[in-house]
Write a structure and sequence with these properties.
This protein is mainly alpha-helical. It has 3 helices and no strands. The chain is 90% helix and 0% strand. It starts with a helix and ends with a helix.
Length: 178
């Protein structure tokens, strides 16, 4: 850098500084030309570089936006698929619940019907049992009453005559059968 500043200082000491002419010092003129060109390039190049960087950023943003939209569409598709599957599970679940409910109701009705039949059979059995017990008690009472009446009406003589008459009837029956 010292050479560059020396060349500017050197320009101020030219003997023909007041007149127009050619500088034949190649090093000094090249450095001046290079510094002017670099200054112009830097001055105008900043805007171009900045614009290029902005355009690259916009392109990158557009690419990222496109990828994001694509992923969003894929996610929406998956969401719709999952929602349809959930609806299908829900419908199947409700159908299964209704089917199980109807099976339970039918089973309960059958069980109640069987219990009602068992109850009626038990009632009929207990009624027949009670009727048989009452008949047996009535028969026993009638028999005891008849025996009591016979015992009170029969005396020993009548009793012997009845026995002899029955023996005679059995004997006559035996003769007929022989």
């Amino acid at each position: 850098m010292k050479n560059v500043t020396d060349s500017f200082v050197f320009l101020g000491h030219w003997p023909s500084a007041g007149s127009f002419g050619f500088n034949t010092d190649i090093l000094a003129t090249n450095l001046i030309n290079l510094s002017v060109v670099l200054g112009v390039l830097i001055f105008f190049g900043k805007g171009v570089y900045r614009k290029q960087r902005i355009l690259n950023t916009i392109r990158n943003s557009e690419e990222l936006r496109g990828k994001a939209i694509e992923q969003l569409e894929k996610a929406r598709t998956r969401l719709k698929k999952v929602e349809m599957e959930a609806d299908q599970f829900r419908v199947n679940g409700y159908s299964e619940i209704e089917r199980e409910k109807m099976n339970l109701i039918n089973s309960t009705y059958k069980t109640l019907e069987q219990l009602e039949n068992y109850k009626n059979e038990t009632i009929n059995f207990e009624q027949q049992k009670a009727i048989n017990q009452v008949r047996q008690q009535i028969f026993q009472q009638a028999l005891q009453g008849a025996l009591g009446a016979l015992n009170s009406c029969l005396n020993n003589e009548l009793h012997l005559r009845t026995i002899n008459a029955n023996i005679g009837m059995f004997g006559a029956m035996n003769e007929i059968t022989d």
